[in-house]
Design goal:
This protein is α/β, with parallel strands linked by helices. Helices cover about 40% and strands about 10% of the residues. Helix 11 (about 280-290) links the parallel strand 7 (about 255-260) and strand 8.
Length: about 575
């Protein structure tokens, strides 16, 4: 065995490093290009003062709100002459048809955006969901994240979209953060920067613009800016050394867009109750001048309470332009906002040259994204073109690579496939994919289920039964749509987890890793495997590790408590006979 294991390590190292990041990345849209300049000039010179302002505004679009809503968006395009759309919930086929319709009535080709941090499935049904960024933060092979960026970029091009409001480059160093959490690559600035860069370059190499977010860093807040205005009370030195680090790295590598957060940051701008989105010292001074950012400065949604609470009735939109933002996303009232910005130009609050600079930049981005020569989208066989075999395979590979053996692998290696084994799934009322996969390899096993509201009597009865088994495999599932930082299990079930952990137990966590902090006693488990989310792919990955079908090389991307810290995890390699599929 000792002679074989190093060879396995070398094999998997070669396998992981065989996917190199592209050596030659696509040049940023703001680089010199005579053809681009000619097209930009030809469009810009035809725009009226109002039409130039309208190019800065992006409006909301859905495909699940019916004909009247779709007609209202078309009217905003025809008469309002807005510069872009942000698509939200709906379906890919309906969106493709609507995109053709909307582009056909737009005077200037529309730049179309979407929040798709984990792919189209973040917004659209019948599409592929990639792992959350927290899951990706556990992966050691960063080139896999680059490949994901390329695949998501292909999906965007298939649906005629040009701008992904991703990646999230916030460092989630506050476990109680209500809005970032699993959307972050973790709490280590170097890991966050590396994974974000790979994702960004994958998208941009496919011709998709990005909007790295949420500048200057939303990771250490306890307020959701959708509902109120968070305040960052940190010093400038702290922000420079931590929050700003990933932004600096990605800007230096040619980030095409940055999304500005709605946060009050006294160390950067002492104006009371002023969101960073509306701060000229932050948007123009820090981002553009100090950090040298040349791409699109994009506001977070201007309908959020964090920005309109103290600047209502369209004043927030005007202030956002004054601050130096190029794209004003999702105004509460776009028609009103355009009028107010035009009025502010007349009054001298906004220099016409500033509008011109932003509009030219938007047009440059449109040309770079392929809008210099538009043609209708091909709507045939969209499902097949969006659910490519290589994309489906990549989702599983990403999930496999994230799988983290957080505590000793001794029990995994000692697992006897012939012994009576209890396979317990908690938080669910039906047999899980994880249980099915394990049972197919360990026939002498029994499945147990317990819902997240299991009664004390049910729990006691199950514990009595489980104690009769030779081996116990426990799976903790979070079936909520988004993996929050604490489980919604009742107290009895959490105590049950602690009791089961004292047995000869392998524990698997299919949930946000922060949930482990709320399960005292889980550290007593002989082995712990973390898979970060409750996807089918994650359950398959854990089952493959337990049954010796694959190694596990993930690392914890966040610190949880005194037992489990950022970077924890061991390189687990199965016995060769198991790796090759031979089990007794």
């Amino acid at each position: 065995m000792r002679a074989i294991r190093p060879r396995l390590f070398i094999f998997f190292t070669l396998l992981l490093t065989g996917y190199g990041l592209s050596a030659q990345h696509k040049k940023p849209f703001y680089e010199a290009d005579p053809d681009k300049d000619r097209w930009v000039d030809s469009v810009f010179n035809k725009l009226s003062k109002r039409e130039k302002i309208a190019q800065m505004f992006f409006v909301r679009a859905h495909t699940d709100k019916g004909q009247a809503y779709e007609d209202s968006v078309e009217k905003m395009i025809r008469k309002g002459k807005v510069g872009g759309l942000v698509f939200f919930q709906g379906g890919p086929g309906r969106q493709a048809v609507l995109t053709n319709r909307y582009q056909s009535v737009s005077m200037v080709p529309l730049l179309i955006a979407m929040d798709a941090e984990w792919g189209l499935a973040m917004r659209l049904d019948s599409t592929l969901a990639y792992p959350y960024q927290m899951t990706l933060g556990a992966i050691q092979d960063t080139s896999l994240v680059y490949q994901m960026g390329r695949e998501i970029g292909k999906d965007f091009r298939t649906l005629g979209m040009h701008l992904n409001f991703a990646p999230v480059v916030d460092i989630n160093n506050n476990p109680a953060n209500p809005v970032i959490g699993y959307r972050s690559f973790g709490d280590n600035k170097y890991n966050v920067a590396a994974k974000s860069l790979a994702y960004m370059q994958g998208l941009q190499d496919e011709g998709i613009l990005v909007s790295i977010k949420h500048f200057p860093g939303h990771g250490d807040t306890n307020v959701d800016s959708h509902h109120d205005l968070p305040q960052l009370k940190f010093t400038r030195e702290r922000l420079d050394s931590l929050e700003l680090y990933p932004f600096k790295q990605l800007i230096e590598k040619g980030a095409s867009g940055v999304m500005i957060a709605h946060m009050n940051i006294p160390s950067l701008d002492a104006t009371k109750n002023l969101p960073s989105t509306l701060s000229e010292p932050i948007v123009t001074g820090l981002l553009k001048k100090e950090l040298g950012f040349r791409g699109l400065a994009i506001t977070d949604a201007m309908e959020m309470k964090g920005v309109v609470k103290f600047f209502p009735e369209g004043e927030a939109d005007v202030r956002a332009v004054i601050a130096g933002n190029d794209v004003i996303e999702l105004s509460e009232n776009t028609r009103r906002a355009i009028k107010l910005v035009k009025k502010a130009v007349r009054q001298g609050r906004i220099e016409p040259g500033q509008i011109n600079t932003s509009v030219r930049k938007i047009l440059e981005a449109k040309y770079w994204a392929g809008l210099g020569a538009t043609r209708p989208l091909d709507t045939d066989q969209l499902s097949a073109r969006l659910m490519r075999p290589e994309s489906l395979s990549l989702v599983q590979r990403l999930t496999d690579a994230s799988t983290t053996v957080l505590k000793s692998d001794s029990l995994i290696k000692a697992l006897d496939f012939s012994k009576r084994t209890a396979i317990i799934s908690l938080g669910t009322s039906e047999i899980s994919t994880f249980q099915k996969e394990i049972k197919s390899r360990i026939p002498n096993s029994t499945n147990f289920l317990m819902s997240k509201i299991g009664s004390a009597s049910d729990i006691r009865a199950m514990l009595r039964e489980v104690e009769k088994f030779d081996q116990v495999i426990m799976a903790i599932h979070d079936y909520r749509k988004r993996p929050q930082s604490s489980l919604d299990y009742n107290t009895q079930l959490k105590i049950f987890i602690a009791e089961l952990s004292k047995l000869n137990t392998i524990t698997c966590v299919f949930a946000n890793p922060y949930t482990i902090a709320g399960l005292p006693g889980i550290e007593a488990s002989k082995s712990i495997i973390v898979n970060y989310e409750n996807s089918v792919q994650a359950q398959r990955s854990a089952a493959k590790v337990i049954t010796g079908q694959m190694p596990a090389m993930g690392r914890l991307p966040v610190s949880i408590n005194t037992f489990f810290k950022n970077g924890d995890g061991i390189n687990y390699f199965p016995e060769p006979k198991r790796l090759l599929g031979h089990v007794n």
